[in-house]
Amino acid sequence: MALIPNYKSDYLGMQLSTSVNPSNARWLLFLSKTDSLEFVFRAVNIPFDWEFVVAQQEETTQLSEVYRINATFPLEVHRVGNWSLANGLQWTNTPLYKRRNNLRGVELRISTAYVS
Fold first, then answer.
1. What are the residue ranges spanned by the domains of the chain?
2. Cys staple from 44: which of 13, 80, 103, 115, with CB 3.0 to 4.6 Å?
3. What is the enclosing helix (H) or strand (E) of 54?
4. How far apart are CA 44 and CA 67, in angstroms?
5. Burial of 63 (0-12, 13-18, 19+ CB in 10 A)
6. Residue 15 pLDDT > 90
7. Sign of CA dihedral 86, 56, 66, 101
8. Those residues with Cβ within 8 angstroms of residue 71's Cβ, 6 or more apart along the chain or in another chain
């Protein structure tokens, strides 16, 4: 898990892009409930295969995962859990790639090769 202390500068994108093998990390960013995720991540590409969770405190702390299907696509935001002192952590039971099953029309071109 990586904690990012200061997101407000345009430095966030550079911090993420220069990290060592960031796709193997699980990211957690704490934001104020008044912060707009679209604004915070306006110039940051969070790739489809990253696990990047944003915590925003309201009545409980809401946990949302963010990513982009493609660098040119809008930010995807999905609520994955909550945390509170009274109830502890409540997390979705849906696996990561089942939560990300809509590619918004992106066509994948694939091929296979049989090597004996």
1. 2-99
2. 13
3. strand 51-57
4. 9
5. buried
6. no
7. positive
8. 45
